[in-house]
Design brief:
Strand order of the largest sheet: 1-19-11-14-10-2-3-4
Helix content: 25-40%
Radius of gyration: 24 Å
Strand content: 15-25%
Largest sheet: 8 strands, mixed
Structural class: alpha/beta
CATH superfamily of the largest domain: Spore Coat Polysaccharide Biosynthesis Protein SpsA, Chain A
CATH class of the largest domain: Alpha Beta
Mean pLDDT: 94
Shape: globular
């Protein structure tokens, strides 16, 4: 075959994927280059092993994992005593010291689009401010800027995009002058892509004659993307020891939380995770558990109806600790994952994937026809030598925007932001109406203590944005 690499042709033949070259002779030089580059990125032996494991039932370990699961032991619960509160104060002091010393950076996972919200742009662009309609990105940017000013240090902000969100995200920041942050401190990097395969034959699906059907490799692609972009090495060279991780859909996350960072450091953890108590056992959240002495996350879909409500000998629900996707990672641990044998495993998800047929017709399936491949960042937990679980205040820290309406919607997130602002104002002695939108910019106050130091009116009767 003219101009097609011989070694790659042998690989395709070995794995029965020669069909991707059906239209090779018709492709332009650019199209040929694109297809070869995509095929070079496919780990065919790994792909084959994952598919074989799925067919043999080797990956269907949900029930057995659920049966082995125990209530996690190394958990710092919400403070209930004076000693608990003093420990959090000590942790906050330690975390603030690390922030002042430039030992912490933050990464925002922002590869998703707002499709489920009826929004065509990247989800981080979505307007969430109850009064100001600030975007999710601006909410986070103002927290970082406020912490930078408080601690007198510039804080690196890494934003992981996808091929679909990268360019519009970069343009969004450029058009808004990076929300006052130094441009050099905001670094964008794109997560990788993985091919979709036919669920029956295991053959690679084609989006165009010169392109495979590709999709983002999941939030677990963070490790490889950080390494390949050079950003992980740059952080290590700058002396950054800890990476605060969160996802773009949670506007009430406490960015660069000194308490969490301090607890993580004092406990010498390689990975720390914030959990919240599920509102009910049946809530569709992944749960942190102990399995064989290691911390793992079990997805709700892995549990049978009977397992969902399982309790231990004390009466505690085994799967109480809902995952918020708020983590702190040691950068040395991430480096170990990226360079050693600890690559995060691949997961298969059945999806309806549009593609070209063998005759070149466009097929738009109405039901799942293919496997998409992805990695999950929480699979790093059992690979860590030491993990820490910290229970967070759900009302304060976890109000994600996942659905257009109902639970976890823009309405519930805006209500939460207003409730938090209202509570802070009342703690500062300000009379605030019970209902209606209220908003406080992080540039005004990062916490109730800072707000109490401001000169405030004694009463507020109208919508407020400060």
């Amino acid at each position: 075959m003219e101009h097609f690499p011989t070694d790659l042709q042998q690989t395709l033949r070995l794995h029965h994927q020669e069909h991707v070259l059906d239209w090779w002779e018709t492709l332009s030089a650019l199209g040929r280059s694109r297809l070869v580059e995509q095929l070079r990125q496919v780990d065919f032996p790994l792909l084959l092993s994952v598919l074989n494991a799925d067919r043999s039932g080797g990956r269907d370990s949900g029930p057995s994992r659920a049966e082995q699961a125990m209530v996690p032991r190394n958990v710092i619960r919400l403070p209930a005593t004076d000693d608990d509160r003093r420990e959090r104060e000590r942790a906050a002091a330690a975390g603030e010291g690390l922030l002042r010393g430039g030992r912490v950076a933050v990464v925002t996972v922002a590869g998703g689009q707002g499709t489920r919200l009826g929004f065509d742009d990247p989800k981080g662009v979505f307007p969430i401010g109850p009064v100001s309609e600030r975007s999710l990105f601006q909410v986070f940017a103002e927290q970082i800027l406020a912490r930078s000013r408080r601690h007198g240090v510039r804080m690196p902000w890494l934003i992981m995009t996808s091929t679909a969100t990268h360019e519009p995200t970069v343009q969004f920041f450029q058009q808004r002058d990076f929300f006052g942050l130094p441009e050099d401190d905001v670094r964008f990097f794109c997560q990788g892509s993985l091919p979709a395969v036919d669920a029956v034959s295991g053959r690679l699906l084609r989006d165009r004659p010169d392109s495979l059907c590709l999709s983002p490799d999941g939030h677990g692609g963070l490790v490889t993307a950080l390494k390949n972009s050079g950003l992980l090495d740059a952080l290590l060279q700058q002396g950054v020891e800890h990476l605060f991780y969160h996802q773009v859909d949670n506007p009430t996350v406490i960015m660069l939380d000194p308490v969490l960072i301090g607890l993580h450091s004092r406990q010498r953890a390689e990975v720390s995770t914030v959990v919240v108590r599920k509102v009910r056992p049946e809530e569709r959240m992944g749960a942190l558990v102990d399995i064989g002495g290691r911390t793992e996350i079990i997805e709700y879909s892995e549990l049978s109806p009977e397992q969902v409500t399982r309790t231990d000998e004390t009466g505690e629900h085994v799967f109480w600790a809902g995952n918020t996707a708020i983590h702190v990672f040691d950068t040395a641990f991430l480096d170990r994952l990226s360079t050693g044998s600890g690559q995060l495993p691949l997961h298969l998800a059945r999806k309806a994937v549009p593609h070209l047929s063998e005759s070149g017709e466009r097929i738009e399936p109405e039901s799942p026809n293919a496997f998409k491949l992805e990695r999950f960042i929480f699979d790093a937990l059992p690979m860590a030598e030491r993990t820490l679980i910290v229970e967070g205040d759900r009302d304060r820290e976890f109000n994600p925007v996942k659905n257009a309406e109902g639970a976890d919607s823009p309405e519930t997130a805006r209500t939460a932001l207003s409730r938090i602002a209202r509570d802070w104002l009342r703690q500062a002695g300000v009379a605030v109406p019970e209902f209606g939108p209220v908003e406080i910019s992080p540039l005004t106050a990062l916490d109730p203590e800072e707000l109490r130091q401001k000169a405030l009116a004694g009463e507020i009767n109208a919508d407020m944005f400060r």
